[in-house]
Specification:
Layout: E1 19-24, H1 30-38, E2 43-47, H2 55-62, E3 68-71, E4 74-75, H3 81-94, E5 99-104, H4 117-130, E6 138-140, H5 145-154, E7 157-158, H6 165-175, E8 180-181, E9 184-189, H7 193-204, H8 211-220, H9 224-227, H10 233-239, E10 240-243, H11 245-257, E11 263-267, H12 272-283
Helix pairs in contact: 3-4, 6-11, 7-10, 11-12
Length: 284
């Protein structure tokens, strides 16, 4: 069995490993989960705002023995806190120390009820507290300093999405040394730059229409020209790393060197199974 990518975050009951994978819920199933586990990945992040029943997380845990499952992320506007808490307790009773609840406020552009998001997130955390969900068992989707600080105070840490190692460095400075920092990073295992950029751009450009991401990317140093849809080559090269497995591995590890505890890798392209194995080998 391959040696897992190990990491320990003080105060967390769930061991994530250093490297995990991020996939939309509708692209996850028992076979892929078992493959990721056998290759030594530490965590599967369930993306795409899974519903409050968290059934997909339970299914993946049932199908595996060791790998952790995290949500990246449960949307607070769509999934009531009490229902999520009930699911959390059901899952953790069945699979102790293997489930991490990631929550976030989503996007104003696609949420009719979006209002006072920071306060709504605080209220949601209060409800999780009242329902017995420990702060050590949850993380927040966080990009800017205010929510990053909240992630360090009211959760185990932060799960930033669509970021770079430069953001990871700043996020670690805001969080301090203790809390978890687990950024997502898109990758394309393809050594043809134009083809790889086309693959990356096909996913990245939709996020350039969402203000919370573009605001954060401006803070990170990208210009209006970079952010103009469909995104400059410089932007795409940063947000969707491409190249050989060894080149991509170095880009993923740059997050760890910048202060991340864990990196959630999102593979872009058609052959996810092969990409999982090739990157796992390069990361050893």
């Amino acid at each position: 069995m391959p040696v897992p990518f190990l990491v320990l975050v003080i105060g967390m009951a769930v061991e994530l490993g250093k490297i995990g994978i991020w996939r939309p819920a509708w692209e996850l199933g028992p076979d892929l989960a078992g493959e990721a586990e056998s290759l030594g990945y530490g965590t599967i992040w369930v993306g795409g705002s899974p519903p409050a029943d968290l059934a997909i997380a339970e299914q993946l845990l049932d199908a595996t023995d060791r790998i952790s499952i995290a949500t990246g992320i449960v949307n607070i506007w769509n999934s009531p806190a009490r229902a999520v808490a009930e699911s959390y307790h059901r899952i953790t009773a069945k699979h102790p120390d293997r489930f991490l609840l990631g929550i976030g406020v989503g996007h104003r552009e696609v949420t009719d009820s979006y209002a006072r998001p920071y306060q709504a997130l605080v209220d949601y955390l209060d409800e999780l507290d009242a329902s017995g969900v420990p702060s050590s068992g949850r993380v927040l989707a966080a990009l800017g300093p205010k929510v990053l600080r909240l992630a360090g105070e009211r959760a185990a840490g932060a799960h930033p999405y669509l970021t770079t190692p430069a953001h990871t460095k700043r996020a670690r400075e805001v969080l301090g040394e203790g809390p978890l920092l687990a950024p997502e990073q898109k990758v394309v295992l393809d050594t043809d730059p134009e083809r790889a950029r086309a693959t990356g751009r096909g996913t990245v450009e939709m996020y350039l229409r969402l203000n919370n991401y573009t605001r954060n990317l401006r803070r990170t140093g990208f210009t209006e020209d970079d952010l103009a849809v469909p995104g400059s080559d410089r932007l795409i090269d940063s947000l969707a790393l491409h190249g050989s497995p060894e080149q991509v591995a170095r880009g993923v590890e740059a997050h760890l060197q910048a202060g991340a505890n864990h990196v959630a890798v999102q593979f872009l392209g058609d052959d996810v199974s092969t990409s999982l194995a090739r990157l796992a080998e390069a990361l050893r």
